[in-house]
Amino acid sequence: MSSIAQNKEWHSVSYSKVLESLDTSSEGLSTTEAGKRLKKEGPNIICRQSRESAFKILLRQFLNPLIYVLLTATIFAITMGKITDGIVVFCVIIINAIIGFVQEYQAGKTIQGLLQLIPENATVIRDGKQKNIQAAELVPGDYVLLQAGDKVSADMRLTFVKNMQCNESILTGESLPVEKNTDIIEADVGVADRKNMVFSGTLITSGTAEGVVVLAGIKTEIGKISALLQTTASVKSPLTKSLEKIARGITYAIILVSVLVFLIGIFRNYTFIDAIFFAITLAVAAIPEGLPAVITIASAIGIMRMAKRQAIIRHLSAVETLGSTTVICSDKTGTLTLNEMTVQVLWNGKQKFNVTGVGINTDGKILKNDSDEEGKEDEIGELISAAALCNDATLHKKEGHWKSVGDPTEVALIAVAGKFGINEDELRSKWRRLDELPFDSEKKIMATLHLSPSGEKIIYLKGAPESVIPLLLNSKNSSEVRTEALQLAGTGMRVLAFASRKLDSEHSSLITEEDLCDFTFLGIQAISDPPRMEVKEAIDSCHNAGITVKMITGDHPATAGAIGRELGFINADRVITGKELQNLNAQEIQEVVKNTNIFARVSPEDKLNLVKALQANGEVVAMTGDGVNDAPALKRADIGVAMGISGTAVAKEAADMILADDNFESIKAAVEEGRRVFDNLLKSIVFLLPTSIGLGLVIFIAVLFFPSEGGILLIPIQPVQVLWINLITAVALSLPLALEAMEPDVMNRPPRKPNKPLLSSLIIFRMILVSLVMAGGTIGLFLWEYNIELSRGMEHSLAISEAQTMAVTAMVLFQVFYLIDCRSLNFSVNKIGLFSNPFIYIGIATVLFVQAAFVYFPFMNRWFHSSPLKAVAWGMSAMVAFSILIIISIEKWIQRKYFKNVKM
């Protein structure tokens, strides 16, 4: 047993050597020895990662600088008897915490999916007898029996194989089952090329085999992926990082200015309580309480739109990350291609024929090369019929959908027969099958014996060209067949050769080995998993949007290169394999990923390293995948994209987004929607922040210059009124911005750079300008109304209440007019359509209604200390507020004229 830990390349030594190294045999381990090894090695399970408790997740929602300020404001407000104000602020905190908790609690289930891949039982030889044991009890050295339908329960070196194929797509990404053997394989090959081994979690699709367990539990390939998942950290989205930076900046500024306000209050002989009150009022005014809710709701709206375009978002932050994506790393099978094998080319020994139509259906034609003339019966009729007869698959249309049964390659042969007008059921009933030699993975051929309608007996043969050529009667054209087969295989297609042999009518109705000779060559059919028709256009669209598309696949390099060239990948002739990557260090991989867009035969570690290298180069990476092998890279990527149809549960849990239709076109659509969401979120931020800054300025100026009249603090807007503006009106007005139409240039501009500040210098200038106009207009109207009412002999407290109500109304109307300008940060409203977003006007109408309630409803007057206004006060507020629309329209015009190349 000493060599177990040392020998990691089990595929590179003979199985007899493996048995010797593990101190076992085909008689299996004794029960006693198996028990000792189980105690030493541990059970054959993947350890469950402990999940964070719900309480810890909830507690983390309060660990935010802005929340600290709000909590402090709540405590002081209640302490000073401002119960209503304190309750309102506290409700804001709770709502934001609940939103964050629900979003985060959905994550962290990835390892659970891995556990489902390990079967419950396994058939082994123990004490020289066949036994059925729990898979968890398997240990290195156990001798296991495998058959079609079994899920492999540990990594095993095969010792006996009979026509066995294994579906390893969850590990390698290859859609076709892999033929297995017991031959020794060179040491430095990837998992996909280890034909003499089977791996935990994969599925035996046909045949039987025997093998010895070499790795179990966490040491298996599946176990390694589990370990990678547990140690792979998720990456924060660009917007999250930017908002955290803004939140820190706002927090520090609020603390600094609040302390300054407190000191100014003390300097101006306010009482300690009054000075604290003003400081808290400013803090409440300056914090954009509605921002977290707006971001969450806007993202949720984006999620609903993306779902209609087949992109299901699991995490809210993924929505805006898509808009910043600079590189899309796509799997090949099922994403760029259909994952439906299709015959592309026929060759009858003289002439080529191209097959139109793709996928599992009979739509299409068989055309002579470089012409629109269809192939004729005497040219390709027998070649197509032979492929349908020497075949066990079926293809039928049921309820408008094509349903297939059998090997994908054989289904493709049936589909091309249908394109030629041949129905396989009718053909098979006329050409009755008498006998067959099933496909042999060693000989790589299949043969069937048929009785023709005229009573002749004929054998049809199909197989790999190198296996069929030696069996031909006429060897003169062997070199030509071999050359053509190699040429087609070089384009990444799977090539099958077909031949026939007529027998005497007295011949037995059985096929013998002696009958496998003197065949007449019928032709070749070349099969591939074709690209999706819409993908090329989607990739071109991504390139126009400044997004690089890379293919990262477990498939063969020739196949990957051929698909890349057909789809228009940049630098498609350069293909790097996982074996080459493993010889490079991290810095060298960073250089390679800059100019290489196609990677083949990659392992899970390779995929993860590629994503890390791209991120180290400053890229925002979207990674697609469907198998367990993709899960670590999906988790590490800025946005992981799993396949909804073919994807495993593990891949889906590790991903941020799921494609309902497994189509790359949907990724492009999601990027488009992501950019739209980001644009609209930025509009919401640019709309909300100036209001908060403007309110803060109002309080700051009041503390700095305003007197205390009649024992009542002269303040233009009270804290609870500030919350009314920040939460009710601001949110109601900013939410319609999330429904804005796409900007005209959404997919004709480069992605936003990850290190670029969220708020550009032009945006900051605009926000300062808006804040000053809002603060100046609001203070001016407050003073005008206050002095007018005092001059009319109104009681001092009522004059303040009415003036404050007018100030709040003015601020709300400022927001209404500013909202129209925020519908586009760069373009005029006319360019995006004055009525393209009716929700804007619904939001404005809603705000005007609730503001009227704020002014006139008695219970609102009590809660918010407001007073009814006369019509002239509304008119004055509207006139002053309208100035913001004129000022920002002029500023936009100057920006377009003199800063054409500077985008917001």
UniProtKB/TrEMBL annotation:
Q: Which UniProt keywords apply?
A: ATP-binding, Cell membrane, Membrane, Nucleotide-binding, Translocase, Transmembrane, Transmembrane helix
Protein name per its UniProtKB record: Cation-translocating P-type ATPase
Origin species, per record, is: Flavobacterium fructosi
Topological type in the membrane: Multi-pass membrane protein
Q: Which family does it belong to?
A: Belongs to the cation transport ATPase (P-type) (TC 3.A.3) family. Type IIA subfamily.
- Domain of life the protein comes from: Bacteria
Q: Read off the InterPro entries from this record.
A: ATPase_P-typ_cation-transptr_C, ATPase_P-typ_cation-transptr_N, ATPase_P-typ_cyto_dom_N, ATPase_P-typ_P_site, ATPase_P-typ_TM_dom_sf, ATPase_P-typ_transduc_dom_A_sf, ATPase_P-type_domA, Cation_transp_ATPase_P-type
Q: Which PROSITE patterns does the record cross-reference, listed alphabetically?
A: ATPASE_E1_E2 (PS00154)
Q: Return the Gene3D superfamilies for the record.
A: Calcium-transporting ATPase, cytoplasmic domain N, Calcium-transporting ATPase, cytoplasmic transduction domain A, Calcium-transporting ATPase, transmembrane domain, HAD superfamily/HAD-like
- Residue span, Cation-transporting P-type ATPase N-terminal domain: 9-82
Q: Which residues cross the membrane?
A: 58-80, 86-102, 250-270, 276-304, 685-706, 722-742, 763-783, 803-820, 840-859, 871-890
Which locations, inside or outside the cell, does it occupy?
Cell membrane
